[in-house]
Amino acid sequence: MKETYDLLVVGAGPAGLMAAKTAAEAGLKVGLIERKQNIAEIKRACSMMVVSLSGRYLGERVTLNPRNQRICFPHYGFSVAYQGPHKNFYTWQICSYKGNKIQIGGYKENLLKGDAGRASAIYNKEVLLGGLLEENISLNVDVFHPYNVLGAIKEGREVKVITREGKTFKGTFVIAADGRSSRLARSLGLNQDRKFFGTAITAGYEMVDTEIPEEFSLFQIFLNEEPLMRAWITPRTADREHFVMVTSINHGADFEGAFERFTRQGIFSPWFKRAEKKRRLSAIGNMFSHIIKPYKDQVVFVGDTIWCKESEMTGAVISGWKAANAVALALIEGKVSEEGVAD
Ligand SMILES: Cc1cc2nc3c(=O)[nH]c(=O)nc-3n(C[C@H](O)[C@H](O)[C@H](O)COP(=O)(O)OP(=O)(O)OC[C@H]3O[C@@H](n4cnc5c(N)ncnc54)[C@H](O)[C@@H]3O)c2cc1C
Asked: What is the pTM of this model?
């Protein structure tokens, strides 16, 4: 391909979609490369909580605005389209497998207060990604998928992005938004100095016809399993639907067995008497210390690519927005360099 983009964005999660949209709004010629066939479809486990509606996270307190159907980031001063449903939840309940619990927030009192009493809300991430994708398309971002990116090489003033399918793309800058196990970070040697803390593994199911008491709550349950495992239950936006995950940092843990024992035996099983599994979503993530300098060879790293854990939708979107603005400024000022995007 002969054409050179001002910016190539690799990965169309919340960070990449936000970066591509922001750069296109700034007048840049943008190409977005994603390995999934269906960009809006979620492949990894996600509880879909907004982090955070009731407190600050990464300097921001997000607002869900049903009037203009946007998720707003008032501190940074931008918003993204979100024409989907949301469901408030009011408490965080931490339980032992015997049912002893510590509860943060009074359920009834908070429920009565409505939005003012919520801990946060569940959104639909697939609707969010779909909305961001539409915004990108309407801004004439060239979206290339499915392409699996193998690496990036700096050649003169350009960066060449290489895909498994044999297609190459050229950009002046690249934003790497390829997530937790970023191939771009690995291929450019950015993982070399990171400390390795372990691997977090999640197996989860979206379940229908659940009967959870105080259902608009987040539950964290310590399971009677060896090695230690936890279950997490969060509402989905539809009625009587929940996302139920079992998690461990031990590879050898019996995830399916623990899930079955939790939902079919013991004191929590009545919650799932009529429940059925709708979709399985799992996730695996190595936990490294964060990347100190998220830049190399005109490639800027954002979102989950650089953190030791998940940056959450909130952090991913903020960092995509910041990186795209930095790239736009660097191009305007003719500083195609680390100095150009340093801010
Ligand atoms: C169990 C679990 C629960 C979570 N719960 C929540 C929650 O409740 N709320 C919340 O806000 N966040 C939650 N998160 C975190 C959230 O999913 C991430 O922080 C967020 O999606 C990060 O966005 P991102 O754009 O940086 O990366 P991702 O969302 O991972 O997007 C990366 C994109 O890059 C693509 N890609 C990867 N490699 C390549 C390649 N080689 N070539 C081309 N494309 C590639 C992927 O297909 C993907 O589309 C949870 C995560 C886990 C694991």
From this structure: 0.97
